[in-house]
Design goal:
about 180 residues; alpha+beta; H-NOX domain; 2 domains; four-stranded antiparallel sheet; 6 helices; 4 strands; globular
Length: about 180
């Protein structure tokens, strides 16, 4: 998993759950006296999952809720971090989501061939509706749904999401219908 997800998990824990001590406690509970995650490096998926699961236990928050909230939290940070990849400043929520899989992930992969971004394919249904198909061996569709809400929040737009198919339930991909409600 790309190091940026670990980096923003540290910020999330510190901002929402008690400062530096919360992150240090999480690392210690996972067997690390000290650990630094570099944003451009790859780390084992299992390490990210272990941190999320331990945070869920330590905070007594269901992991799905924690992951969704983390996804929502990280969007404004990701938009700053990846600002150079945003090709069109006129994009709003749905336009950004439409271009993550084609424009942004491809550019990231070209610059760092070790990354394994998910496959995200969108279909524009109308001005205010898209269908997003998501495939990833990581099956982080809960994180993605949080990120979708975070994108809407960032642009001051309410996004309604309906997930029709889910890899967590045995489907080959997750399929989301997303409406922009203004």
């Amino acid at each position: 998993m790309h190091g940026v997800f670990f980096h923003f998990l540290k910020e999330y824990m510190q901002e929402k759950y008690g400062g530096k001590e919360s992150w240090d406690s999480l690392l210690l509970a996972n067997g690390y006296a000290y650990k630094v995650y570099f944003t451009i490096k790859e780390y084992p998926d299992e390490e990210f999952n272990a941190l999320i699961n331990m945070a869920s236990r330590l905070l007594d928050i269901p992991s799905d809720h924690l992951i969704r909230d983390y996804g929502e939290f990280m969007v404004p940070h990701m938009l700053v971090f990846y600002a150079t990849y945003l090709k069109d400043k006129s994009w709003r929520s749905l336009e950004l989501i439409e271009n993550v899989g084609t424009s942004i992930h491809h550019t990231v992969k070209r610059r760092n061939p070790d990354t394994r971004p998910p496959e995200m394919i969108t279909e524009r249904i109308s001005r205010d509706q898209i269908v997003l198909r998501y495939r990833s061996e990581r099956k982080l569709c809960v994180l993605l749904s949080g990120m979708i809400h975070g994108v809407g929040n960032h642009f001051g737009e309410h996004l309604e999401i309906r997930e029709h198919d889910c890899m967590l339930n045995g489907a080959s991909e997750c399929r989301f219908e997303i409406w922009r409600r203004t």
